[in-house]
């Protein structure tokens, strides 16, 4: 006799609200660079099906149509800008469409991330701003009481203090754009005490003091905080930490890509969360998806980009 309980699919009400808000703003024109795999093309078409984006497919027509055939979908009605069969050429064309204002966002296809971002930062692309680019993840975690963002788990490997200032500024501007007027930001380190031998803790202390002095505006910032007392008010109280951020952050600023990447995968695979993510700091948002992303995460990333724009 089989007594196994039926599997209950998780629900993501915070993500539902994000996607509904994005759909309410109308479809976002997105150049999808080199969608030459079933995964990457399918992600763009799914986001269109959900009324989030209006994709412009950029790359070799023959390969894109072959992917559509494999997916058993029609490309009738979609704009396709043909390029040679080269991911860098397709990336450059997609960036040119964004630079000319024909689209308002970019989406990675099946090329390597650095091929797309390399086209974005090239001198003639006119896509750079005064700040370094960075990535923001947005999570719906069943165990946390509100959406939680993590930056930067994708782009900046070992950011310096100067880099972290840009990452913070990007995250604050992004939070404002999606409707958070004064996000609470926890600057993570291994421990919450300041130690001159511990570089990430020193960076966190400097950034926190800069915020106290009004050199960083638009957010409530505290650090260094360890992960437990950043997320848990009870943990912070046990350790005698009095902080307006502890137990209630909207954003976690991680010290480096290793920490961010492990945190992201832990949230998804152990925490049973779902996420969205975009690159910010360029003139348009850049939607990066990976082959391991769920269909929901791909649509949500498009929704997050849509919500960040007027």
UniProtKB/TrEMBL annotation:
A Pfam family hit: PTA_PTB
GO MF annotations in UniProt: acyltransferase activity
Residue stretches making up the Phosphate acetyl/butaryl transferase domain: 91-305
Gene3D superfamilies on file: Isopropylmalate Dehydrogenase
Keyword annotations from UniProtKB, A to Z: Acyltransferase, Transferase
SUPFAM superfamilies in UniProt: Isocitrate/Isopropylmalate dehydrogenase-like (SSF53659)
Family the entry assigns: Belongs to the phosphate acetyltransferase and butyryltransferase family.
PANTHER family according to UniProt: PHOSPHATE ACETYLTRANSFERASE
Protein name (Swiss-Prot/TrEMBL): Phosphate acetyltransferase
């Amino acid at each position: 006799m089989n007594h196994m309980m039926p599997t209950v699919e998780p629900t993501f009400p915070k993500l539902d609200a994000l996607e509904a808000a994005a759909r309410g703003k109308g479809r976002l024109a997105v150049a999808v660079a080199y969608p030459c795999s079933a995964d990457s093309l399918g992600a763009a078409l799914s986001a269109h099906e959900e009324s989030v984006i209006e994709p412009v497919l950029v790359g070799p027509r023959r390969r894109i149509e072959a992917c559509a055939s494999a997916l058993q979908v029609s490309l009738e009605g979609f704009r396709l800008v043909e390029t040679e069969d080269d991911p860098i050429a397709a990336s450059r064309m997609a960036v040119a469409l964004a630079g000319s204002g024909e689209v308002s966002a970019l989406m990675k296809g099946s090329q390597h991330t650095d091929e797309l971002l390399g086209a974005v930062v090239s001198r003639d692309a006119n896509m750079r701003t005064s700040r370094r680019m960075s990535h923001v993840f947005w999570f719906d975690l069943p165990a946390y009481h509100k959406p939680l963002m993590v930056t930067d788990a994708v782009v900046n490997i070992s950011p310096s203090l100067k880099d972290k200032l840009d990452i913070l500024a990007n995250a604050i501007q992004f939070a404002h754009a999606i409707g958070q007027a004064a996000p609470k930001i926890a600057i993570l380190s291994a421990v919450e005490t300041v130690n001159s031998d511990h570089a990430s803790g020193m960076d966190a202390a400097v950034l926190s003091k800069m915020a106290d002095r009004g050199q960083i505006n638009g957010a409530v910032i505290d650090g260094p905080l360890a992960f437990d007392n950043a997320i848990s008010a009870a943990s912070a109280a046990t350790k005698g930490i009095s902080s307006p951020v502890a137990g209630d952050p909207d954003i976690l600023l991680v010290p480096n890509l290793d920490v961010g990447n492990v945190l992201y995968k832990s949230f998804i695979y152990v925490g049973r969360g779902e996420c969205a993510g975009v690159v910010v700091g360029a003139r348009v948002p850049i939607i990066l998806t990976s082959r391991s992303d769920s269909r929901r995460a791909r649509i949500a990333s498009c929704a997050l980009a849509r919500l960040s724009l007027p």
